[in-house]
Amino acid sequence: MALDTERKELLLGTLRKLGKEDFESFKFFTDLPQSVLNTDIPVDIAYELIRKHGENVLEETVKILKKIGNNNLAEILHNGMLKIKVADLAVHEDEDDDQIGRLKRDLQENLLSLYSFVPEGNTKRWEQQQSLADVYTELNVTYGADVSPDKRHEVLQMETCALTKKSIRPCDIFESADGKRRPIRTMLTVGFAGIGKTFLVRKFAMDWASGNTNQDVDFIFPFTFRELNMEKGKSFTLAKLIRLYVSESRRMSEETLNNIFDSLQKSGNRDYKTSRIKILFVLDGLDECNFKMDLKNEMKMDIDVKQAYPLEVLLAHLIKRNLLPCARLWITTRPATVRYIPSNLIDSRTEVRGFSDSQRLEYFRKRFPNDERVIQHIRKSRTIFIMCHMPIFCWISSTILQDHLDKGKVGDLPTTLTEMYTWIVFYHLEVWKERLKTEYSRYVKALAKLAFHHTMNKRQIFYEKDLEDSGFDYGQDAKHCGLFTEVFKEVRPLRRIQQGKMFQFVHLTIQEYLAALYVMMMCSHHKKNVLADSRWSLKGFLMPAKQKLITQVQLSALQKASESEGNLDLFLRFLFGLSLACNQELLGELLKAPQDCGQSKSDTVELIKKSIKQNTPEKNINLFYCLSELKDDSMLEQIEQELHSRNLSWRNMPNEMWSALAFFLLTSDEPMDWFDLKKYSASAYGLEMLLSVVKAFEKSVLTDCHLDKRSCHLLASVLSSSSNLRFLDLSHNDLLDEGVEILSKGLASRNCILQVLKLTKCKITKQGCTELAKAIKLNPSNLQELVLSENDLSDEGVTSLSKGLASQDCTLKVLDLSSCNITKRGCVSLAEAYKLNPFHLQEIWLWCNPIGEEGESILTEFSLRFPLRATFDPFRQDGF
Questions:
Q1: Over 60: is that where the pLDDT of 590 sits?
Q2: Of these four, 18, 518, 752, 866, which has the most CB atoms within 10 Å of its CB?
Q3: pTM above 0.70?
Q4: Domain ranges, ordered by start, for the chain
């Protein structure tokens, strides 16, 4: 080989350069046989050295040269060795790069074939697919998802969701929000069901496979949990799992993948940016995973990448960074599942937020270009407009609205969610009536039964056996049931070899509607309460047997919904909505109830109002939506009248009216830029009753409201939870250091997105500053303005606060310390903090502080060197 020849020539050339005496000395230290040492021919000595030392012959020659004192020749030989090694490495790297390039192109072709075409909506068969580029609609994707546990139903969360964050392009999803390009190993993307998470993954992968974006990535290996569920209980190597689900290329064999992964694992590199081979693993739909992964035990382990592990263990090691820590990982999930992943395993978060207000209106303008009445109707119904946040619901709504327009029923457009979904069922039954004739009730009941049982079990992915257990024969019935083909769809796997078929409803809300329909059908046709639970009767939850069956069903539903942590909120709305005569008439025989099974609207409304009296305002929000489904706005009209008349007596106002006020403020069509508690009740109790409103608004002003320690606990819970709050003014409340300490726990939460905090005249001292500094250190990336004016902070408090300001990640831009009793020493502390972090702080307000000319000059000096504006009282007298 050429490199072997180069080594021989280098060795022989070195020996020939030795003088006679050095050559004899050199032979003495070689420890060669005497018969060899008698020769004076360099070639013979070189040959024997190679036989003895093999590949290490040059290294040994350097050692001998140093022993005989010929350091000059030793250095020449050493430099020659380095040149050979560099050339050797270059050849191997070129060979590796060529191989990686070939494998990359092969994988890109593979993914293009999987991702380029998708079915549009659920109206096309797989052989009638559309180009993803044509079907994909731009989504709102934002940095910094709210990932704290939220027990509300996803639809309820959407109804209080702000859409003010700047959207990012799919290809930029791994960039840092603040532009600092922090190392991102694991990205978590959250979003509600049907909001577009999987489409986002497909778009990202297709753009890469097309060679358009993110070409620094060598390999993308996407997995979906809905498919991985089929391998539960099996063991795999990582390479075998990839071969099974992602790559069907012969080039990318298990042996090739094992060699690549083994070299990366043994390198010890934990940084994606510096990794020689850049790999992205995608785990789509963690919320659909039905096997357990131990992510809490974070003990570091030495993993053999060539060894097979049970699937749940293999994936857990990948997430916990024991397996290929230099590879990048992208996990998508619904918000409810986020709590199962320890926060320290996530480096960055993004959120898919569906359509913005303008995008959803644009959607309907394109669909109905010559009829502004549809736009007006969509905007008028808040619940329907919020649901159009999701692209799939825009498609559902437009289908129903188009049918009304075609039949000239514009004045009879659906105004509630229950009406909308009832029209979906009615519309498709009408279309297929001739073919189904009297058989349609069996099909609907089978689908509704499937929806009910799996809604109760929190499942959204089904298999053929699940259909059979519900009385639906997929092979035969699917050919005749038009409703099935419209509201239910087969989920196409990414891999081409599939064990069994997978299904899901086109959206979770359709599953929940059909589940409610099943309960009502069983009540009306079979006089059975399928929600009944024997343990409740023992606890006294159920009413006497003489009570109407429908009342017992509704009470059971209320109880189950209250225990479901929000999972059954929309199911409950549909159940009450289906008790309305207009919806029952539309469904005809499906819900034709016997005389003794019906219940008047007034009785149902009264039942809900009794429940409202027993709950807190936040828990009552969904019950008011239930009243909306019944088209009863009596409580809202009452609270609105009293607001206009200003005759409300806050101290004596009953709980249900507080709930009505909270719901009115949350759903009002009148634009409210900010919430001012003093307009309603300047008290700690008022805050407690209207906490859900504070949580929903981006800006809340709670000044001079006599807030106390409990108020701080409530606000801390808001800051550390899923909320929209970005501006909070607590000025002129005697919070004291104790209250600020409690509040700081919320500020320190990674979920806190507050940008402006005003604490003017809150009786804060040094201890309060210490707690604020701790919070800024723990969560430095959001707070931009902090107002602490008219508090006796003194120099000690400013010194404590400066420790938080010095944090490299602190993003605070404006700091107001007016009238805080600060002297020159405090200015020195601020200056030292600014030296450590000079990139963000832009304004410091120091009006009415005895800082003197020396203190002013200290900060003025920094103003000249950095973009810092220190503002002093122009009317300050010397010494004050």
A1: yes
A2: 752
A3: no
A4: 2-89, 131-354, 416-537+549-590, 600-671, 674-871
